[in-house]
């Protein structure tokens, strides 16, 4: 079996704020966020998550429309329903929307719920809207009644209830989410939105794939680590994994070395930081160390690397051999330079 892309965006309009919110929900708030390795844009749906083994898809249809009527909701569920019918394994089918009217719901306080939380009269109208859209698109030759019922028991509604900067904070691995200002997070949010937009700058309408992994060939995706990298580089203030020169304050530590030894140390430090960040096991330790350094620099005007290292890490025992003293000192120098 194959999957054919339909109703994809073929222009270069800005990705909506709402779609970027749904992306950040998926990787920051979803219960399955730890299983998602890739995010695709306007392929299977507005936003879709895929696991490392390309076995499962978490699918999001996002609709930023105020006062959604039940019939419209049903109509907009069609893309999710069509994916439900696919031979691919859509592990979760999510309708991401503004807060729905209270009188639609049984428990008005829930922000994430399935249709069992919708009152019967509203549920019936949602179902009617989906049935009409299925007939309009697919015709009446096949009876989809049982499939529709099964789908409606599985679809998840997620209401948007956070600001742009709050969504971005969800994916920040700092304990202190307010280490940076709301304006800072909003700027990064806009940058991510623009990257998302640029990923839709290709024509894939009516293209088909035989396996989930084939979607990567269209380059309408980001790895979760790509998003993490963007965030940490903006927080630190430099392209930490592509830094090609010697940080000013680190030079004092290596200036007596010959050229080749200096190159070796820089190469080793860069390699160690990359290994720490891009390894899932040690990634949290990387964020923890960065947070400690930034916290210290925010309240101290010291630029001497040795003094800073001793003040923060005098009792630190490296959890990973590639987070040695010289590597942490190199990271300190990068952060000083980035924050200046």
Describe this structure in words.
This is DUF4297 domain-containing protein. The protein has 340 residues and is α+β, with helices and mostly antiparallel strands. It has 2 domains: 229 residues, no CATH class; 100 residues, no CATH class. 46% of the residues lie in helices and 11% in strands. The protein is elongated. The mean pLDDT is 92.
Q: Write out the strand line-up for the largest beta sheet, numbering strands in chain order.
A: 6-7-5-4-3-2-9
Query: Helix/strand-derived class?
Result: alpha+beta
Q: What is the number of helices?
A: 13
Task: Give the CA-CA distance, first to last residue.
Answer: 55 Å
Share of residues in helices: 40-55%
Shape: elongated
Q: How many strands appear in the DSSP assignment?
A: 9
Mean pLDDT: 92
H/E series: EHEEEHHEEHHEHHEEHHHHHH
Our estimate of the beta-strand percent is 5-15%
Contiguous low-pLDDT stretches (5 residues minimum) are none
What is the number of domains? 2
């Amino acid at each position: 079996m194959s999957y054919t892309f339909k109703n994809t965006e073929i222009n270069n309009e800005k990705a909506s704020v709402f779609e970027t919110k749904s992306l950040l929900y998926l990787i920051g708030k979803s219960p399955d966020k730890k299983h998602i390795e890739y995010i695709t844009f306007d392929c299977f749906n507005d936003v879709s998550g895929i696991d490392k083994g390309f076995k499962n898809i978490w699918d999001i249809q996002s609709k930023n429309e105020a006062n959604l009527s039940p019939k419209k909701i049903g109509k907009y569920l069609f893309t999710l329903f069509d994916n439900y019918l696919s031979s691919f394994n859509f592990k979760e089918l999510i309708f991401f929307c503004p807060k729905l009217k209270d009188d639609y719901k049984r428990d008005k306080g829930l922000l994430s719920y399935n249709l069992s939380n919708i009152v019967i009269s509203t549920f019936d109208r949602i179902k009617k809207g989906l049935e009409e859209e299925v007939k309009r698109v697919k015709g009446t030759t096949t009876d989809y009644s049982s499939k529709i019922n099964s789908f409606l028991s599985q679809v998840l509604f997620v209401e948007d209830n956070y600001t742009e900067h709050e969504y971005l904070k969800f994916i920040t691995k700092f304990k202190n989410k307010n280490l940076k200002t709301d304006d800072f997070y909003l700027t990064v949010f806009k940058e991510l939105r623009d990257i998302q937009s640029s990923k839709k700058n290709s024509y894939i309408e009516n293209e088909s794939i035989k396996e989930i992994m084939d979607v990567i060939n269209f380059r309408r995706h980001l790895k979760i680590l790509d998003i993490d990298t963007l965030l940490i580089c903006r927080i630190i203030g430099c392209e930490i994994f592509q830094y090609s020169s010697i940080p000013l304050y680190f030079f004092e530590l290596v200036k007596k070395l010959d050229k080749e030894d200096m190159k070796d140390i820089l190469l080793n430090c860069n390699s160690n930081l990359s290994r720490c960040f891009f390894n899932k096991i040690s990634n949290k330790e990387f964020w923890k160390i960065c947070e400690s350094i930034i916290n210290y620099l925010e309240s101290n005007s010291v630029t001497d690397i040795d003094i800073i290292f001793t003040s923060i890490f005098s009792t630190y025992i490296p959890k990973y051999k590639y987070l040695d003293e010289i590597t942490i000192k190199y990271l300190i120098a990068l952060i000083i330079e980035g924050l200046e």
